Amino acid sequence: MKGTYLGEFEEVVLLAVAIRAGDAYGAAIVSEIEQQMGRAVNLGAVHSALNRLQEKGLVTSQMGGVTQERGGRRKRLYSVTGAGRRALEEIRVLRNQMWDAIPKAAWS
Amino acid sequence: MNTPSTPNRPQYPTAPRWATRLLHWFCAPHLVEEMEGDLHELFCQRVELVGLRQAQWRYVRDVFSLMRPFIIKRQPNGPAYREYPHPNHTDMLQNYLKIAWRGLIKHKAYSFINIGGLAVGMAVAMLIGLWMYDELTYNRYFQNYNRIAKVMQRGTAEGIVFNGGYMPLPLGNELRTAYAGDFKHVVMSSWTGEHILAYGNEKFTKTGNYLSPEAPEMLTLKMLSGTRAGLHDPASILLSQSVAQALFGTTDPVGKIVKLDNKLNVKVTGVYEDFPVNTEFRDMKFMAPWALYVSSEEWVKRAQDNAEWNNNSWQILAQLAPNADFDAVSAKIKDLRVKHVPETAYMKPEFYLQPMSRWHLYTGWDKAGNVDGRIQYVWLFGIIGVFVLLLACINFMNLSTARSEKRAKEVGIRKSVGSVRSQLIGQFFSESILVAGLAFIISLLLVAIALPFFNEVADKQLDILWTNPVFWLSGLVFSLLTGLIAGSYPALYLSSFQAVKVLKGTFRVGRLASLPRQVLVVVQFAVSVTLIIGTLIVFRQIQHAKNRPIGYDRNGLITVAMNTPELYQQYNVLRGELLQTGAVVEMSTSSAPATNLNSNNGGFDWEGKDPNFKDSFGTIAVTHDFGKTVGWQFVEGRDFSRAFATDSSGMVLNQTAVKYMGLKDPVGKIVTWRGRPFRVVGVVKDMVMKSPFEPTYQTVFMLDYGWANVINIKLNPTLSASESLAKIKAIFNRFNPGSPFDYKFTDQEYALKFAAEERIGTLASGFAILAVFISCLGLFGLASFVAEQRTKEIGIRKVLGATVFNLWQMLSKDFVVLVFIAFGIATPVAWYLLSGWLQKYEYHTEISWWIFAVTGAGALLITVLTVSFQSIKAALMNPVKSLRSE
C-alpha cells in the first residue's frame, strides 16, 4: 500500500464519495464536485483519483447491477472504508487545531 | 439528480462517434463498460445544462483525459479483479522471457560473449551469402540470359588443352547464313577497348565495343532515349548514360555528332542505362556499329574481304533460336575450323557455344581441360562461411550448455511447483531463440557497418537485400534453427532431472559430461588454425611472386596509348621535343606495354628446327630505344643500334626463347618469319610480361616502327613525377589535341597482376581473424565456467598449500591439450588443401615447416593468454570466501 498522504483533489473526491454514500460512481462524483465547487472537472482526473484512493485502501468498489440508465451499462460503486473515514477525520482535526491556534490579533 | 436523463425521452443528441471509437481502442476491455457509461451519463446531463455543442466538446475532452496508464493497461490476473487466477500460455511465455532476460543481465560477460560471438558469425555468413548471391546472379540483368552464348573454341597444343574466345571474322557470316535456323541473332564484336570520345571541348577516354546492329536487341538495352535500332546507321553510336552525362551534361545527346578516336564523326542515336557492375559488359560504356569498324580499320577490312579464317581476333556472341539448344548447335558447328583451315587439324580445334550462365563462373580451364573457374572461389568462400558460422554456433551451444548446468536448481524448483517437462523444454527453447534473435539483429547492424569495407576489398557493389523476402526468411529460419539446436541440450537433458535429487544436492554431472564440449573446442581450433595457415601461405605466395626478378626496370616508366593518327605522323618530332624538356630520359614505341604480352604467333623458322615442330612465340615490335627505355639486361650480344643499318631486320630473343629453339650460339643466327629473314643481335634476360605466377613465355622482339600501339616513356629520376608529367602533358596536348592525355605507370600496372591473389589473401585473413576471435571468445567463456565450477576444489587445494602457479598450471593444462589435438588435426588438412592450391601456380612457393610451427605457437600463446586470465583470477581467490558457504 502506498503512502496515505491525501492530495487536495483526492480529499475532494473522497468527500464526494462520502456525500453520495451508496450511489457513488464516476459520473455522479463528477457532477457532485461540479455542483459543490462550481468548477469543471475531467472524468479522467476523477477516475485517476479514485484509482489512487483504492490503491491506498481508502475506498473500496464493486460492480453495481444492470440499470435502465446509461443504456443498460453497469457502474462501479465506490464506498469509503474505515481507513478512508479516519483519514478524513484526521484532516478535519488537524485543520481545526490549526484554526484554534490562530491568535485573535491576526484578523484585526 | 440521480437520474438526470429520463429514459423515455427520445435520444436525439449523440456524442461524437469517433471519440467513442477511440475510447474502445485504448481502454482496457474490463473498464470500457464503466467508462462509457459515465461518459454517456455526463453527456446527457450536459446537453440539458449547457447545450449540445458544449456537451460534445466536454465529451471529447473527457475521452482524452481518460488516456491514463491504469486505464489503458490490460487486466492483470490479480485477485482484486478476479477471484481465481487463470494463467494462460502467454503468461508462462512472459515469465520465460523475463527469466531469460534476467539471466542475461545477471551474467553480462557471458551474455556479451554469447550474443556477440554468434552475431559476428552470422554477420560473416551473411556477407559471404551476399557475395555468393552476387556471383551467382552475375549477368542475370540480361533478359535473354538463358538464350545467349559466346562462340568459343578448344583444342590441344603440345599436350595442353586451350580454350579461347578469339574467333575468325568469316565465322560470323557462316553462322548467320548456313545455320540461320539455329540462331536468332549472331553478333560480331570487337574486344572492349579504350577509345577517345570528343564533343566540343569535352574529350574522354572511354571503353567500348564495335558491335553488329542486332546487339542492343539481343542484350535488351534499357534505352533512356533514342532507339535500339540505332546501330543500323554505320556512322552512329550508342552511349551509356554515364558517358552521355560526361559529354553532354544535361542537354539531350540524341542527334549530336561525336568524334570517335579523333578521326570518325558519328551521330548519337541513343542513350542506354549503364550495365550493372555484376555483368560481363560492365565496361561497355558505348557501342559503335560493326560496319564502321570494318570500314575504318584496314586490317579488319582485309580480314573480311579475303575471308581470313586463320585470323582469330574477334568475339562472336549469339542468341539461340527458340527451338535450338546449346549442345546440339555446338555439335553442329564444332568442325568448322578444320573444314576451313585444314592445316590446324593437328590441334583438333572445335568450336562450341558457351552459354551465358557459364560465362562468369565456369570460364577458366586447367591444362587438362577441366573447368577451373571462379565457381571454385564461390565454393571456397561458401565453405569458409559455413565454418565460421559453425564455430559461432558451437560456441553458442557450448556456453549455453555450460551455463545450463548451473540452473539445475531452478529446474528442480520449477518441477516441484508443478511444471511439467514439456513446459521446461519450452522454456529453454524460448530462451535460446530469444538470444539467437538478438544476435540476428546485431549481425544485421554489423553487416551494414562492414559492407562498405567489404565492397572495397571484394570489388563489388553489394547491398543488404532489405526487400528480398528470401533473405529475411533464411535469416529467420537460421536464427530459429540455431536457437533450437543450441537450446536442445538444456531443453532435453536438464528437463529430465528428478526434482528430489537436484534439490537435495545429490545430483552430479557425469564425468563424461564435459566430453562433447571438449570435442567442440577441438573442432573450433582446428578450423581456426587451418585458416591461419591458409592465410600465411597465400601471403607467402604473393610475396614469392613479388620478389621474382622481372628483368626490366619499372621505376618511373609510363605508357601512353598511340590512339590518333597524329601521333604516328609526328612521332620523331614529338620524341625530340619531349627529350628536350629534360623530363624524359628515354622514349620508344612498342606493340605492347612491358606488362602485357598480347600477341602470339607461329610460323617461325630457324636453322636446326624440327620440321614437325609447331612453334609459338610471343611477338613484340619495338623501336631502337625500347631497350634503353625499359632497361632490359643482355646476357649475350647487343641491343638494337642505329649505328648498324642492318638492324632494321634485327631481332632480340629472350632466354626462354633460346632454350625453346634449342640454339647453341644464337647471336648472328637467322630466323625467318612470314618469309622475312631476321638476324638475332642479342639475347636478353627473361622479362615478366604476363602473369608473375607463370614461367616466362618464349618471346621475340623485332624492330618495327609501323607496328606500334603504345609509347613507353622513362621519366627523369631527378625530377618529381608530377613535375615531369606536367611538362609531358603540355607537349602531348600540342601534338595530339584530339585526345586527353592519359598515361599509366608501369609499376601500378604490374601491381594489378597481384590483385586477384591479394584479394583472396585479404579476405582470407579477415575471416581467419574473425574465426580466431570467435574461438577465443568460446574458450574464454569455457575457461571461466570451468574455473567457477571448480571454485571449491581450488579453495581446498589452496588451504592445503597449493601455490598460484600450481593452480594456474592445473587449470590451463586441459585447454593446452585440446589445442594440441586441434593442431594435430589442422596440420594435415591445411597441408592437403594448400598444396592443391599452390599446384595451380607454376611459379610457387614451398610450404615450409616453420609456417606450421609459427601457427602452432601462436595458437598456443593465444590459448594460454585467454585461459590464464580466468585461471589466475580463480587461483588468486581467497579460499575463505569460496569455502565459507555451505
UniProtKB/TrEMBL annotation, chain A:
It holds the Pfam family PadR. Residues 15-90 form the Transcription regulator PadR N-terminal domain. SUPFAM superfamilies: Winged helix' DNA-binding domain. InterPro entries: Metal_resp_DNA-bind_regulator, Tscrpt_reg_PadR_N, WH-like_DNA-bd_sf, WH_DNA-bd_sf. Coiled coil: none annotated. This is Transcription regulator PadR N-terminal domain-containing protein. It comes from Nibrella saemangeumensis. The lineage of its organism: Bacteria, Pseudomonadati, Bacteroidota, Cytophagia, Cytophagales.
